[in-house]
Design a protein that fits this description.
6-stranded parallel beta sheet, binds pyrazine-2-carboxylic acid, binds zinc ion
Length: 191
């Protein structure tokens, strides 16, 4: 087994997507096995922190009236409302000092499924000299997919930590992995 610390290099950063209570079992929009990504991601977070690599944690951070909610004609139940327990990161997720939080889904007029969608993240990463992103989190077939495709479009190399992701829909999750690979991402199946 190759440890996370042996893989992260200069120019690498870790991006953890939406590991929040509402996306875990018992939450408002539970993803099967969503909480199982936490111990896997914690190993990567600890390694990145120990090596001084940048760590970014995105969070879905919706206003109370958000266009993605079904009451407004959107696809989803009410979830990840700002400052509610459901919007908090999973309590076991490591959030080391220096980790940056990226808020997404804050707009009143449209959803932001990608952590890059009008958040300024690409520019910030370039400013820090980041060239490659290691990405895991929730949900594989929704926000991880959109985030990874945007990262590739922005010119970053991407490694998807498949074991650190779970999908809303298992079949869509497998398709998402193939789509990200086709777009140029590497998919890491072990660790
Ligand atoms: C997400 C559905 C709605 C996600 C966010 O983080 O994957 N999914 N909002
Ligand atoms: Zn959302």
């Amino acid at each position: 087994m190759i440890l996370p610390a042996e893989r992260l290099r200069e120019g690498d950063a870790l991006l953890v997507v939406d590991v929040q209570n509402d996306f875990c079992p018992g939450g408002a929009l539970p993803i099967p096995g969503g909480d199982e990504v936490v111990p896997v991601l914690n190993r990567w977070i600890a390694a990145a922190h120990a090596q001084g690599r940048p760590i970014y944690l995105s969070r879905d951070w919706h206003p109370l009236h958000h266009p993605s909610f079904s009451a407004a004609g959107g696809d989803w139940p009410v979830h990840c409302v700002q400052d509610t327990p459901g919007a908090a990161f999973h309590p076991d997720l490591l959030c080391p000092p220096g980790a940056e939080v990226v808020c997404k889904g804050v707009r009143f007029d449209e959803d932001q499924l990608s952590a890059f969608h009008e958040t300024g993240l690409a520019r910030q990463l370039r400013r820090q000299g980041v060239r490659r992103l290691w990405v895991g989190g929730l949900a594989l077939d929704v926000c991880v997919l959109r985030t990874v495709l945007d990262a590739l479009r922005e010119g970053f190399a991407v490694v998807v930590l498949a074991r650190a992701c779970r999908a809303v829909d298992a079949k869509a999750g497998r398709q998402a992995l193939m789509e990200m690979e086709r777009a140029g991402a590497a998919v890491l199946l072990e660790d």
